[in-house]
Design goal:
The structure holds 2 protein chains of 2 kinds.
Chain A (H helix, E strand, L loop, with lengths): L1 E10 L3 H12 L4 E4 L15 E3 L8 E2 H13 L4 E3 L3 E6 L4 E6 L2 E12 L3 E3 L2 H4 L9 E3 H9 L3 E2 L3 E5 L3 H12 L3 E6 L9 H8 L6 E2 L2 E9 L1 E9 L12 E3 L3 E4 L3 E3 L10 E2 L4 E2 L12 E3 L10 H19 L9 E5 L3 E5 L2 E2 L5 E7 L6 E5 L2 E6 L9 E5 L8 E8 L2
Parallel strand pairs in A: 1-2, 1-8, 2-5, 8-22, 10-18, 12-13, 12-18, 13-14, 23-30
Antiparallel strand pairs in A: 3-4, 6-7, 7-8, 9-19, 15-16, 16-17, 20-21, 23-25, 24-26, 26-29, 27-28, 27-30
Helix pairs in contact in A: 1-2, 1-7, 4-5, 5-6
Chain B lengths: L1 E5 L3 H10 L5 E5 L16 E2 L10 H20 L3 E2 L3 E5 L2 H16 L6 E4 H7 L9 E5 L3 E3 L1 H14 L3 E3 L4 E7 L2 E7 L3 E3 L2 E4 L5 H8 L7 E10 L10 E4 L9 E4 L5 E4 L3 E2 L12 H14 L8 E11 L6 E4 L5 E5 L5 H20 L25 H10 L6 E3 L4 E2 H9 L5 H8 L12 H12 L18 E2 L3
Helix pairs in contact in B: 1-5, 1-8, 2-8, 10-11, 10-12
The chains are: A alpha/beta, B alpha+beta.
The structure holds flavin-adenine dinucleotide (FAD) (2 copies).
One flavin-adenine dinucleotide binds next to α1, β3, β6, α5 and α7 of chain A.
InterPro entries (chain B): BFD-like_2Fe2S-bd_dom, BFD-like_2Fe2S-bd_dom_sf, FAD-dep_OxRdtase, FAD/NAD-bd_sf, G3P_Oxidase/Oxidoreductase
Organism (chain B): Thermosipho ferrireducens
Protein name (chain B): NAD(P)/FAD-dependent oxidoreductase
Chain lengths: 410, 478
């Protein structure tokens, strides 16, 4: 087994990891980025639709285009990229990171670490929907990869489950590629994705959207032969007598992303709501030499936010590796009324920062308050599926425990 | 002499391996494209202590002996077997009386190391048990394994020793002349056969009817399960049973060999036509959740990985039907319900060592060169990293992870295909790739690619499992 010393090790080469490696290397420290797939880029590789980069590059790019800009930036630095390299474990006491690649097992002795391992898709099996176990049930990301990277189709007649942006985008994609898209079912009374996507992906392509509906049973032997869908009541329970059978050979599910934190969750303080590490404005976890950025911290809507987090993590991980003393935490945030996903959890009060919040409910309009003091009004409909982002550069409303709330405005 | 075994479940595969120790031509015929996909694929995976089967039954005769054989068997065949012990938990005085009855039953079956423990002792070992438990029956001999792996391992080893395996071949008739087995007819051909062993699981009644042996009916009794994530590892450390009822051992909570938690099964009788109905139901899943949660309140369905179900091959005698029949050369190994997994090594030996010489007057000669050992596919959880590093240096494919949830490399998948995997499920059952929390989200397409490459077929031809389980339809654009 080979051992190697490195200042900053970045785990995961998606948008967050690439940005982190760029920034870290730009601070003049030895930086290695490890990616378990053949290519870096993460989910950007398969997102051939546009809608990336509006904030940071001020242009509307596809995923691969966004990725190539990052590669270009990275190639100008001294950062070393190792792909087909998977981190197996992190030893928190010795700061050793064990990596498997075709070269063998390598142990990196690190000064600081950036975890940017992204999220995985929740599978239909994880939901425990009863019925047959058949071929032909895929997550949206798998079908996206199949169509956009492998150039293959999953079947003939397809139903999409879940109306998040990924589900909507895949409905359109499969229709364009010649599949019969029977419809999209969504258990909630409102679509999960952006209205823009509902219009551009479904309405413009005559694909029906069934709100307050869910799949209650899977049928078939061998390959999928059909599914039963039913209307649900206010408690999201299927209503007896509303079942109907849809003859489809393919089911594509888009039922949520889950941050991947298997490497750190046993020794880093975790937030059960974000399903990611507790984080501060320097993207530092509860372990001072471990930083995190991207969809593993919390699932983000926009790659731009992920990119920005990566840059912050890269900077402070590099400074830490250089032996600089980083500021301590001064203010903590506590979830109050209606606050779901929220980050960061605490800040140093030394630098301006961005706070991201998801409302727990759909609100007609709302105000965000810190310690009871109104900070901002959102004069439009707020949904859990859209992150609110707040720019903060004054700290006078904060205290050691700062209460954050999102209140509906009448 | 030609021996044909029908069915490559745990029964057929262990009988095949036992017979491969002797100088005789042995064939194993399985209608599925792979081994171990019948009842053996979906069950509780427990090597039972052997105390609970009614004394005097064939089940009781074989299960405590079978249990003891697992240590040696798992060493020879290199499969996972962990003797983690089991508790039957009582919640009231009536149930404690029943524990005493079980203990007595165990004594009659030759299981003498059972112990009734108080709640304090139970809690030190199983802190997550329901507060209201008052006592438990401890059985140190109970274990867990991976049933399909036992079948796979036994067949790999038997083939090394001469077994001829026929897959995707279905027995459709058995020709009997003058009260003796003569030939076996399959969808692919006809074979001269001297001895036929019927180990056809749920379909053993149909096979017996083909031979004209005495009639019995097998009907399916469904048991549903929910598999929970490794994150819950340690929630229970041994097999946890409730106090049984007249009809079933009840819903259990137990660890799987690779660290997950399994809850189930319920028991629902299905009509005879439904021997392929493996769907799970809302009612069933709700029932097992409720019962499991009563035993271990920490059960949390948000950690669900998947649900599945198995079918018990029941018959009205409620016992195994093992032995020679009025048709010379036709042997039944039928009605192998629970604890079939536990009992199989014992009855496999019994058939070869007792039925052959005593009932058939056939004395087989032992092979001199029988090799009892089979090695598992290399797997990171059994190698230390130094050793794994050396393996990668020999074959870099062992350095390319494919399944991230269960740490399975390309090397393991290629090796599984070399050993007989032809489908995604074939790879999955041999390596645990795509068995984990993401259920193939990251690795599914890669496994398809590797299968296509290694087998020299197109990705469209790769199947999930059975003939009609295609996965990819065709090219997007040509
Ligand atoms: C289908 C889809 C559509 C989207 N559409 C848009 C859009 O239109 N506009 C927009 O702005 N945003 C969009 N997003 C969101 C945006 O793309 C993501 O938030 C962002 O790309 C996530 O980047 P990441 O680096 O956090 O994660 P990922 O891209 O998931 O990268 C994580 C990387 O870490 C690697 N990794 C994980 N574990 C290990 C390990 N142990 N060892 C080594 N490597 C490891 C993974 O292989 C992966 O490459 C979309 C996302 C998806 C999934
Ligand atoms: C819910 C449940 C829980 C259980 N729990 C346990 C437990 O914890 N411990 C325990 O010891 N036991 C348990 N069992 C019992 C155990 O699983 C079975 O006894 C055992 O798997 C039966 O194996 P088998 O080889 O007899 O049958 P199978 O595995 O069904 O094998 C029979 C094979 O015959 C093949 N076949 C059928 N017809 C034909 C034909 N015409 N031509 C060719 N091939 C044919 C089938 O395809 C199949 O592969 C449980 C069973 C169930 C269902």
């Amino acid at each position: 087994m080979r051992k190697e010393k490195v200042d900053v090790l970045v785990i995961g080469g998606g948008a967050a990891g690439l940005a982190a490696a760029i920034e870290s290397a730009n601070h003049g420290v030895k930086t290695i980025l490890l990616e378990r797939e053949r290519k870096t880029g993460g989910v950007l590789n398969q997102c051939i639709h546009n809608g990336f980069g509006l904030h940071v590059f001020k242009q509307e790019l596809t995923g691969p285009e966004f990725m190539e800009l990052l590669w270009e930036e990275l190639s100008k630095t001294s950062a070393i990229v190792k792909s087909d390299s998977t981190v197996l474990k992190i030893a928190p006491e010795s700061k050793e990171v064990t990596v498997l690649s075709r070269e063998g097992v390598v142990i990196y002795q690190v000064k600081s670490l950036i975890v940017s391992t992204g999220a995985r898709e929740r599978s239909l099996n994880n939901l425990g929907i009863p019925g047959a176990r058949v071929a032909g049930v895929f997550t949206a990301g798998v079908v996206q990869k199949m169509v956009n990277i492998y150039n293959r189709l999953p079947g003939h007649n397809v139903l999409i489950v879940g109306s998040g942006d990924i589900g909507l985008i895949m409905a359109r994609r499969l229709k364009i590629e010649g599949m019969n898209v029977v419809g999209v079912v969504e258990i909630m009374p409102e679509p999960g994705g952006l209205i823009r996507n509902v219009v551009q992906c479904l309405e413009d392509f005559d694909i029906p959207l069934w709100l307050s509906h869910t799949v209650t049973e899977i049928h078939g032997t061998g390959r999928l032969e059909g599914v039963t869908v039913a209307k649900v009541d206010g408690e999201l329970k299927p209503i007896l007598g509303t079942e109907k059978f849809l003859k489809v050979d393919t089911l594509v599910t888009s039922v949520g992303l889950i941050p991947q934190n298997g490497l750190i969750e046993n020794f880093v303080e975790m937030d059960p709501i974000n399903r990611g590490p507790v984080i501060d404005d320097l993207m530092r976890t509860s372990v001072e030499w471990i930083f995190a950025a991207g969809n593993n911290v919390a699932v983000h809507d926009l790659v731009d936010f992920v990119y920005e987090e990566g840059k912050i993590a890269g900077k402070y991980a590099a400074l830490y590796a250089l032996g600089e003393k980083l500021p301590g935490v001064k203010y903590n945030f506590k979830r109050g009324n209606n606050v779901g996903v929220m980050l960061p959890h605490r800040v140093t009060g030394e630098i301006p920062f961005k706070m991201y919040i998801r409302s727990k409910k759909i609100l007609k309009s709302c105000e965000v308050k810190f310690n009871g003091k109104r900070f901002r009004i959102f004069n439009w409909k707020i949904r859990p599926s859209e992150m609110l982002d707040l720019h903060l550069n004054k700290f006078d409303a904060f205290s050691e425990t700062t209460n954050v709330e999102v209140n509906e405005l009448e | 002499m030609k021996i044909y075994i029908i069915g490559a479940g745990i029964s057929g595969s262990l009988i095949a391996r036992e017979l491969s120790k002797y100088e005789v031509e042995v064939h194993l015929i399985e209608k599925n494209p792979d081994v171990g996909w019948g009842v053996t694929k979906a069950n509780s995976a427990i090597i039972h202590g052997g105390y609970d089967d009614p004394p005097g039954t064939v089940r009781a005769q074989f299960s405590s002996i079978g249990n003891k054989m697992y240590d040696q068997l798992s060493k020879e065949l290199d499969f996972d077997f962990k003797r983690i012990g089991s508790y039957v938990v009582a919640f009231n005085e009536n149930e404690v009386l029943y524990l005493k009855e079980l203990k007595e039953r165990g004594r009659k079956n030759g299981v003498t190391n059972l112990e009734i423990v108080d709640v304090k002792e139970l809690k030190t070992k199983e802190p997550n048990i329901n507060e209201n438990a008052i006592a438990a029956l401890w059985c140190p001999d109970a274990g867990i394994t991976e049933p399909w792996e036992v079948a796979i391992a036994a067949i790999e080893n038997a083939r090394k020793n001469g077994l001829i395996l026929h897959l995707s071949e279905k027995v459709v008739d058995i020709v009997v002349e003058k009260g003796k087995v003569k030939r076996l007819v399959t969808n692919k051909g006809e074979y001269k056969a001297d001895i036929v062993i019927n180990a056809a699981g749920l379909f053993a009644d149909e096979i017996a009817r083909m031979a004209g042996a005495e009639g019995f009916k097998i009907y399916p009794r469904k048991g549903e399960y929910i598999l929970l994530d490794k994150k819950l590892n340690g929630l229970v450390n041994s097999v946890i049973f409730p106090t049984p009822t007249k009809t079933s051992k009840g819903v259990l909570v137990l660890p799987t060999v690779d660290g997950g938690i399994l809850i189930g099964p319920n028991a629902v009788d299905l009509p005879v036509e439904e021997k392929s109905n493996l769907s799970t139901t809302k009612e069933g899943l709700t029932e097992i959740y409720g019962r499991a949660k009563h035993l271990v309140p920490g059960i949390d369905l948000s950690y669900t990985i998947k649900t599945f179900s198995g079918l018990r091959p029941e018959n009205n005698r409620k016992d195994f039907i093992i032995g020679a029949t009025k048709i010379w050369g036709f042997i039944n190994v039928a009605g192998i319900r629970s604890p079939g997994l536990t009992a199989a090594p014992a009855f496999a030996k019994y058939i070869v060592e007792k039925i052959f010489p005593e009932n058939l007057k056939v004395n087989l000669v032992k092979k001199k060169e029988f090799n009892p050992y089979r090695k598992r596919i290399p797997n990171m959880s059994y190698f230390n990293l130094e050793k794994w590093d050396k393996l990668v240096k020999k074959d870099p494919k062992y350095g390319k992870l494919v399944c991230f949830c269960n740490n399975v490399t390309e090397g393991e998948i290629v090796e599984a295909i070399k050993r007989g995997a032809r489908t995604v499920d074939g790879v999955k059952f041999r390596t645990r790739a795509s068995f984990g929390r993401c259920q193939g989200g990251f690795c599914g397409l890669k496994i398809i690619e590797i299968l296509a490459r290694e087998l020299g077929i197109s990705v469209e031809e790769v199947k999930q499992n059975y003939r009609n389980s295609w996965i990819i339809d065709g090219k997007v654009r040509i």
